Amino acid sequence: MDKIRLMIVEDDSVWMKCISELVQKETDIIVVSQAFTKEEALQIDSSDVDVVLMDLTLSEDEELGGLHLSRELNEKGFEKIIMLTFWDEPAVILESFDKGATNYINKTSYKDIPEAIREAYKDKVSFNADVSSLLINELKLERKASVLTPAEREVFKLKEKGLSRAQIAEKLFKSVETIKKQLKTIKEKIK
After folding, report:
1. Confidence of residue 63 (pLDDT cuts 50, 70, 90)
2. E strand segments, 1-80
3. Do residue 81 and residue 8 come from a single domain?
4. Is the pLDDT higher at 26 or at 126?
């Protein structure tokens, strides 16, 4: 049986060691490349790798460097890229898929990495459980907000994030009274 050839792109040496050890315990996966930087990752030949497991935050210089690297690797022929991170922002998750990722795993769910590698290898685009719940909640918010005006949507989303009327007013440069009226209108529309 052929082993799935994995490249790990991770700038934290402790995480690199942990992930490598976790994956090497699997009989059907082998780590063939380890890259600690964007430059090292770009030197690897895509024909030598089946799946890439990449940290989203590669360096201090560029907070989401893995997103940009994902696009570059995709253009070089790497088609199966799994993003690995602590980020749980829906916009970042969706952007990673736009940039070529086939899955997105939160580092707290590291035990799911071997199965995600197998799914990517089999061309299954999937969402890890912690990511899918975030995206479903975001979609529910979007559906609720679809009946609202753009200004009301903005207020609604801030309220859903837990901001108070005063905080929303300050953030949007509006009066608390205006926010109060908008929240009342939003409540009526959503019902």
Report:
1. low
2. 4-9, 29-35, 51-55
3. yes
4. 26
